[in-house]
């Protein structure tokens, strides 16, 4: 079983979405994104969030032993939610997305694979893959569409090395256009 990273980076989700648009199942797309040479295995239990040039690392503590059982050390769910609120509380989509994220943190699964899967499922709902597929179809039909320019423009406003939560809180459903630009580039290189 391949485990998605914890609140993976926008770069990871761009690779995941490209694989999904190329016909991969969710599990295959996770494997593809994790097989990338830039993938950091430490991201399975940590993610980076940014406030301008200041980057904060959010880590999920795992108890020693087998099974990757989550530790309650340091009240990390409270710390994560407080950090996300402090950094993104004034972003346009934060008020719409924070409640489901809070529910996830307050009902934390018992193991790291379960937590990462739950976070991935939540993020996947916010990244509308059906809308991405429709946009990809439109781009394939009309390679000169203004949508390509929009994707390229919005991509410049995202740090691909920080958590996808950064882009989602700032761009909402338009996050898919940020991620779609990687797929467009890969099509142009073939």
How would you describe this protein?
With 190 residues, the chain is mainly alpha-helical. The chain has one domain. Helices cover 56% and strands 6% of the residues. It contains 9 helices and 2 strands, in the order ααββααααααα. Strands 1-2 form a two-stranded antiparallel ribbon. A hairpin with a 2-residue loop joins strand 1 and strand 2. Helix 1 crosses helix 2, helix 1 (10-21) packs across helix 8 (164-171) and helix 7 (146-155) crosses helix 9 (175-188). The mean pLDDT is 90.
Spatial strand sequence of the major β-sheet: 1-2
Extract low-pLDDT stretches.
Answer: none
> Radius of gyration, Cα only, in angstroms?
17 Å
Terminal Cα separation, in Å?
A: 30 Å
Number of domains: 1
Series of secondary-structure elements, N-terminal to C-terminal: HHEEHHHHHHH
Nearest-integer average pLDDT: 90
Main beta sheet? 2 strands, antiparallel
**Structural class assignment:** mainly alpha
């Amino acid at each position: 079983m391949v485990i998605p990273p914890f609140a993976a980076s926008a770069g990871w989700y761009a690779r995941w979405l490209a694989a999904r648009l190329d016909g991969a199942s969710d599990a295959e797309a996770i494997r593809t994104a994790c097989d990338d040479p830039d993938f950091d295995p430490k991201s399975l239990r940590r993610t980076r969030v940014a406030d301008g040039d200041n980057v904060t690392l959010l880590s999920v503590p795992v108890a020693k032993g087998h099974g990757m059982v989550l530790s309650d050390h340091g009240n990390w769910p409270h710390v994560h939610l407080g950090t996300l609120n402090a950094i993104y509380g004034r972003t346009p989509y934060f008020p719409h997305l924070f409640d489901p994220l809070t529910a996830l943190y307050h009902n934390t699964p018992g193991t790291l694979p379960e937590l990462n899967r739950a976070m991935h499922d939540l993020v996947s709902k916010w990244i509308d893959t059906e809308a991405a597929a429709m946009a990809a179809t439109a781009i394939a039909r009309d390679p000169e569409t203004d949508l390509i320019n929009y994707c390229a423009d919005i991509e410049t406003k995202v740090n691909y090395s920080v958590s996808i939560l950064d882009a989602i809180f700032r761009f909402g459903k338009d996050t898919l256009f940020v991620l779609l630009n990687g797929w467009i580039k890969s099509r142009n290189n073939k």
